[in-house]
Write a structure and sequence with these properties.
With 190 residues, this protein is mainly α. It is built from 11 helices and no strands.
């Protein structure tokens, strides 16, 4: 792993543990085994470092989700597979979920949320969940709500359940996951 990748991973891990507000660059650099000067040489600013770490987490997730739904024709089945693949991934990589949640709740992350970008008419084709919800809304399969509401009805319950698993050191059973996904799908149906 190169210095850039080590710094990005350290950023993800430190922010997941301490939050954005409590993650100074000297601590991130130290965890990455790099000088703080190297961090700024590679990323320019703390804001850019956090943005690049988020892009890395999004890329890792997209590299799992897009292949998982490839070839699945039915929209609801694609969402089901997407949710199950996301759950499996975030159970394996809990720091990435915690990082994304921290970043998306920050002021900078809020400006880059794909659901909000979709409602502004910007390109969201790289985001699997937003793409599927947008497609379903356009076809009248899903409610004609703002994308932030559709994401809130689908992604938020899953994220909250996964964070509960992590924070309370529990694991939802398969039938609980099945019921959760079914409830998310029912919530957005037109």
């Amino acid at each position: 792993m190169g210095k850039r990748e080590a710094i990005l991973q350290a950023t993800i891990d430190v922010v997941a543990k301490f939050g954005i507000a409590n993650s100074p660059t000297d601590q991130i650099a130290k965890q990455a085994g790099a000088a703080q000067l190297t961090l700024f040489r590679l990323f320019g600013s703390k804001k850019e470092l956090f943005r690049q770490a988020n892009k890395e987490v999004e890329k890792r997730l997209q590299d799992i989700l897009w292949p998982a739904i490839e070839g699945v024709m039915d929209l609801e089945q694609r969402l089901d597979v997407l949710f199950r693949s996301g759950i499996k991934y975030f159970r394996k990589c809990p720091n990435e979920l915690a990082y994304m949640q921290e970043y998306m709740n920050s002021l900078e992350g809020l400006r880059q949320r794909p659901d909000l970008l979709c409602d502004k008419g910007e390109d969201i084709s790289q985001y699997p969940l937003i793409t599927l919800l947008h497609e379903g809304r356009a076809q009248g399969i899903f409610k004609n709500l703002r994308m932030s509401a559709l994401v809130g009805l689908t992604g938020a319950p899953i994220i909250m359940s996964l964070r509960e698993e992590q924070l309370m050191n529990i694991k939802l059973k398969k039938d609980e996951i099945d019921l959760l996904i079914q409830a998310c799908l029912q919530a957005v149906k037109a």
